[in-house]
Amino acid sequence: MRQDVPALTDTLEVQASRRRLLADSAGIAVSVAGFGFVFGLSAREAGFSPVEAMAMSMIVFAGASQFAAVGYVASGLGWPGIILLTALLNARHLLYSAALRPWLRDVPLPRRAVMAHVLTDEAFALSISHFRRIGRMDERGYWIGAIVATFIPWNLATLGGVVLGAQIPEPGRLGIDIIFPAAMIGLAVGLITGRRELVAAVVGAGIAVIVALVSSPSIGIVAGGIIGPLVALLVPKGLASESAPLDTQTDLT
């Protein structure tokens, strides 16, 4: 009977963490919906039809890159340039994948491919926090963070924005465009567990702002996302003071 107790405890712990994950996902879903609505408005202004806007949101599903792509299309940039620039903007997902790899190594490749499609900033932050709370991977928890918090609200809001956009001539006056950045700042603060993360956040944000001012926001995001983590890696391990490194996994066996 004693051997059953740890299993029961683990189950209760996972369930409690999933409930917290659902609550966090609900809050994030609100901001994602606001951002998706603004994207729908932007796509409409750029001449996208509802079908085209929805196809981009469901197939591409990469918020910042979708905004950039819409802007590039509106400016007349050729498709090769659009593909290259949006790929650079999404390069941060390589870092997310590297951090998730230790947790997802036992998941079959076909499912990992689908999981990669719905991997976003929010899904990464929510799932990695959930995994660290329970000390192991929980595939259902990943889907909660990816589908409930991002995929569903993003696509529904995109549809609403592109269909109803004509009724809102100046969305910026309503403050809709600051919902998503505010939510992402909150997520970033929650992921800081040591000096390395703090250095990456501060340096990345500073570089992004400076580069954005002298070039463009898209290039600024890429520069900050690459240089920030690289500078953070220079922090000696003894000075990192990490309470739970992002890529660590507790062995419960």
Descriptive tags:
single chain; 253 residues; mainly alpha; 12 helices; 76% helix; disordered N terminus; disordered C terminus
Mean pLDDT: 78
**Residue runs with pLDDT of under 50 for 5 or more positions:** 1-9, 244-253
Derived from helix and strand composition plus strand pairing, the structural class reads: mainly alpha
CA-CA gap between termini: 18 Å
Strand content: under 5%
Sheet of most strands: none
Oligomer: single chain
Number of helices: 12
- Supply Rg: 19 Å
The total strand number stands at: 0
Task: Give the structure's gist in a few sentences.
With 253 residues, the chain is mostly helical.
Structure explained in plain terms:
- It contains twelve helices and no strands.
- The protein has helices at residues 4-45, 50-60, 63-75, 79-89, 92-104, 109-117, 121-134, 139-164, 179-191, 195-214, 217-232, 237-240.
- α3 (63-75) packs antiparallel against α4 and α5 runs parallel beside α7.
- The longest helix has 42 residues, at 4-45.
- It starts with a helix and ends in a 13-residue tail after the last helix.
- Mean pLDDT is 78; it is low at 1-9 and 244-253.
